[in-house]
Amino acid sequence: MLKGFKDFIMRGNVIELATAVIIGSAFTAIVTAVTDSIIQPIINSLGSAEVDGLGFQITDNKNTFVDFGAVITAAINFLIIAAVVYFLIVMPINKLTEAAKRRQGVDPEAPAPTSEELLAEIRDLLEAQKASTNGISGTGATGSTDTDTDFGSTGGRHQA
């Protein structure tokens, strides 16, 4: 039981995930400090002197202040973190994946066959199989059996 748990923990994916969570937490703290210390004061400067930031108060109670500055700061936090993650993690991994595919001989930009192309290929293979079966079995002059299906006709089917 403990050996299985040890194997699970020692797998690369779990260790990489734990490392990513720790680094992500530290990075979030840095971004929060930058936005709270630099960006939030700039946003608060847009508010009036008697207000703590950009927003409004619903009643005369201080606890009813709607602070748009905090929402804008959170959105800026998100955009900064998303941009850093994309440009420093996602883009390099995508480039490494494409390079690995090219080394294996797979063209990453080659389009996959469409459904119609695959269906046409299947139809052609079935017709070839039907023709070879009819030629071997000697079904007679008509060349048809009870299990034959006419894939070449347009009887309500779309042709590729």
From TrEMBL:
Family matches, as PANTHER family: LARGE-CONDUCTANCE MECHANOSENSITIVE CHANNEL, MECHANOSENSITIVE CHANNEL MSCL
Gene Ontology CC annotations of this record: plasma membrane
UniProt protein name: Large-conductance mechanosensitive channel
The organism's taxonomic lineage, starting at the top: Bacteria, Bacillati, Actinomycetota, Actinomycetes, Mycobacteriales
Function: Channel that opens in response to stretch forces in the membrane lipid bilayer. May participate in the regulation of osmotic pressure changes within the cell.
Membrane topology: Multi-pass membrane protein
Organism of origin: Corynebacterium tuberculostearicum
Membership in a protein family: Belongs to the MscL family.
Pfam families xrefs: MscL
Quaternary structure note: Homopentamer.
